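fold-stage: in
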Amino acid sequence: MTDWMDNPWFLGIWVALALPSLALVAWDLHRNNAHLISLMKVVWLLTVAYSGPIGLLIYWRTGRKEIPDDSIWRRSFRSVAHCYSGCGLGEIVGVTIAVGIFAMGNTGTALLTFTLAYMTGFGLTLGPLM
């Protein structure tokens, strides 16, 4: 399955789609959703940075305040976005520290990335409640 995912063409196309998606969500957050709390802006930027156009679609359908019907599925997508963005950030930072700086093996890398992913995911989920 990963043969096509690590193809340079696939990665190039994905970046070509992800960057405009990220720019669009940043523009929309600034222009139309400036009233969102700062933490939610970070959550949506990270979600779209990780997921490209898929994340943008999820933001557009569930994260904008302009949608009149705040259904349970919209709220659930917003809740998942907190954990998704935080866990992803923890994983990226953890791998960068463990492998890139300390050249740790698999066990150390797994422990550090799990710990950081859990802590940042929990923090971004708990943040709006405080």
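fold-stage: in (second)
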Amino acid sequence: MPSRYTEPIYNGQDITFEQFANSCLRNFGIYLRWEGKQNVGDFEIPDKIEPSDFHKKRYDELNAEYIEFIRHPKSKEQLEKEYIEYVKEVNAQNEEFAKMKNDLRARYESMLEKVRKWVVPSATYQGVKDFMESQLLESIEVDCNIHVTKIIPKDKWIANQQNRPDFVKNMNDHLEQYHQAVASAAESTQWLKTFTESIRKVK
């Protein structure tokens, strides 16, 4: 039975070694760098790998926000009002999360109660009952923990909003990842070039 790569040969399609080698390259991770992004045929590979621009765009967005933040700083009075809303939001989220987890625990425990009430017809069914119980107990342990988001003290929260150290950190992180993407794309482009030059030597 032919594979997706040998199927053209199986069907009698006249393909060259270069085309076959290029098609087999789809099996390697580097192919994911261009699949669906460029109009590349089954027997072709691109001349160049372009870096993802996701981190560059995100950096530009954050930079624009940071410039706006510097130009129009919020007053302390405005930040104090926002802090009140922040506290309300965190408390509401904590309550919603706790309710969701408690409801989930109730559903698990309701089923667990039924499992424990089940009287197995014979000892050969005990393993099934034990497994059912273990699955519910494991899920209760893993899924029902309630995480409470702590409220940041007012002075610290306002200071963070006035300085926004997260802006600079996030900007630097995205810029660094973009530079890594550029370097990786250049390395992959050279790898493809060497690959193409090598397979074209086979006649």
